[in-house]
Design brief:
single chain, about 160 residues, alpha/beta, Quinone Oxidoreductase, Chain A, domain 1, Rossmann fold, three-stranded antiparallel beta sheet, three-stranded parallel beta sheet, about 20% helix, globular
Length: about 160
């Protein structure tokens, strides 16, 4: 929505394909591919040059530095993909590379006896709320409407401030 409305804060390079998060189906594989087969459902890695451990350097990012996922097809190394959970729709899975990972990172290490405050009901906050509750923390959420407050309660918020 931010891209479509012209409010994206990072000016794209000329002719750069936008979008940093995606889910899709493998349509073809190269001869040396070992992790996936045609028909596998996959999700992209948000940071395609970081394979694990401490992040030492921010590499090129989809939709900002290199072509993103707002196209019909993309040719990528198999190591920038992960298997998509079977129970998720493509829309749900496409939220995992950025919003879910950010929410998980934000509450890593919390547990029983901890209290977490999340702001709002969009993007990262619902993920942080669910991860924190799963870890046993109390979660207080803020929001701007009773309908959103009810949804946050359904997701496990202990308290909601409207």
């Amino acid at each position: 929505m931010v891209i479509a409305s012209g409010l994206y804060p990072f000016p794209p390079l000329p002719n750069l394909i936008q979008l940093s998060d995606a889910a899709g189906v493998i349509e073809a594989v190269g001869p040396d591919t070992t992790r996936f087969r045609v028909g596998d459902r996959v999700v992209n890695s948000f940071n395609p040059t970081w394979y694990g451990g401490p992040l030492r350097k921010l590499g090129q990012m989809y939709g900002t530095d290199i072509d993103g996922w707002l196209g019909d097809y993309a040719v990528v190394d198999e190591n920038v993909l992960v298997s998509m959970p079977e129970h998720l729709s493509f829309e749900e899975a496409a939220t995992l590379p950025c919003a879910a990972l950010t929410g998980w990172s934000a509450v890593a290490g919390v547990g029983p006896g901890d209290t977490v405050l999340v702001q709002g009901s969009g993007g990262v906050s619902p993920f942080a709320l669910q991860f924190a509750r799963t870890a046993g923390a109390r979660v207080i959420a803020t929001t701007s409407s009773e309908a959103k407050a009810e949804r946050l309660r359904e997701l496990g918020a202990s308290d909601v401030v409207d």
